[in-house]
Design goal:
By secondary structure, the chain is an alpha+beta fold. The chain has a single domain, classed as Aspartate Aminotransferase, domain 1, CATH 3.90.1150. The protein is 42% helix and 19% strand. A five-stranded antiparallel sheet has the order 1-2-3-4-5. A hairpin with a 4-residue loop joins strand 3 and strand 4. Helix 2 packs across helix 5. It is globular and about 40 Å long.
């Protein structure tokens, strides 16, 4: 994983080649439009993160804000991390089914959707996935995973 030393989202985006920066900006706009109330944008783990602030939920395993989603430029591709898809089997099934129905090729790990251009993504589905999980529900899934249930 390529990690940036950027301290701000703007600094991160400016440091990318123009085509990669433009692709992340386009996905970022959709995320910011559809992000449920209570999440915040920040830099975390060297990428653009969308997190539950510690003021709302301080009991994380690593003492950092709980990551809901993230955007990053890796060496050979761009990444969109969707932790709500990873944390909830029903959301994962919904996401994979809708992605495949879009006709776009899904290149996904556990939470990471890999893409090279914005056109590789069903951008409306990305917005729907971001909008799908309110903070309280995401925290509930996180707590259940920590208990092993």
């Amino acid at each position: 994983m390529v990690r940036s030393g950027a301290k701000t989202v703007g600094e991160y985006l400016v440091g990318l080649p123009a085509d990669r920066g433009a692709a992340l900006v386009a996905v970022r706009e959709v995320i910011l439009e559809r992000l449920p109330e209570g999440y915040e944008e920040s830099m975390q783990f060297g990428m653009i993160g969308y997190v539950v602030p510690l003021e709302k939920f301080p009991v994380t395993y690593n003492g950092l804000p709980l990551m809901y989603a993230a955007l990053a430029a890796q060496k050979n591709y761009l990444s969109l991390y969707l932790m709500n898809v990873y944390a909830d089997k029903e959301t994962e099934r919904w996401f994979v089914e809708r992605y495949r129905a879009s006709g776009k090729k899904l290149n996904m790990g556990k939470s990471c959707v890999r893409f090279k251009r914005v056109d590789d993504l069903p951008i409306d589905l990305i917005g729907d996935a971001i909008a799908r999980t309110p903070v309280a529900e995401f925290i509930m899934h996180y707590e259940a995973s920590r208990r092993g249930t």
